[in-house]
Amino acid sequence: MNTNESFTKHASKLKNCIRKDFGNYHVDIDDLIQEGSLGFIDAIEKVDRSKTKNIFNFCYQMAKWRCLDYIRKEKRHHMEVEIDSLDEININELHVFDETNKVCELIFIEKALNACSGHHRQLLLLEIFGIKNNNSSKLLSENSIRRIKREFKNSYLVLTGS
Questions:
Q1: Contact criterion met (CB below 8 Å) for 140 and 100
Q2: Domain boundaries, the chain
Q3: Cα→Cα distances 117→30, 113, 131, 143, 161, Å
């Protein structure tokens, strides 16, 4: 078996290990596989073949560590909001706007929240807090997000009188 076949065989095993070990971390699995593959390749390049008896075990371990580092970085960068707690948010608690336009914007947001219900209201709250679309897509499908954003745009035009 040549080097390319061996590497391909171990790379496919690595993908399966990553799916099995890190599938429930709510992180994009393709990104994890890519990070794991990069860690695997880095480990192959850095390992001292004369001192290491089983190179591939070491490489798998390095790939898993790289995946864990990636998960830690992603958790730090993304703010997660539980969907159940979105209904409990009071409009007066939102302090994300400038002081000059705060009253007007709060009134507009309150009207928009009152006009929405269910998933639409939750998606609007996710937008207000700056949650990324990949986090909100866990709640809704992509088509639903586009449709709801179109409805918000139409509601905005009606509410502002434009």
A1: no
A2: 3-77, 83-160
A3: 34, 8, 19, 18, 22
Match 């070491």 to its residue by tokens.
58
Instruction: Compute the average pLDDT of residues 86-91.
Output: 56
Q: How many Cα atoms sit within 13 Å of 7 on the Cβ side? A: 11
36 neighbors 67 (Cβ within 8 angstroms) = yes
- CATH class in words for 3-77: mainly alpha
Of 40 and 86, the one with more pLDDT: 40
Tokens of 131: 């949650």
Q: How do residues 21-41 score in pLDDT, each as one tens digit?
A: 877 777 788 888 888 888 888
Give 119-131 pLDDT, tens digit per residue.
Answer: 667 766 666 666 6
Q: How far apart are CA 137 and CA 127, in angstroms?
A: 12
Q: Could you tell me if residue 153 is left (phi over 0), alpha (psi between -120 and 50 degrees) or otherwise beta?
A: alpha
Unique residue bearing structure tokens 């078996």 = 1
Distances (CA, A) of 108 to 9, 80, 97: 57, 25, 12
Q: What is the pTM of this model?
A: 0.43
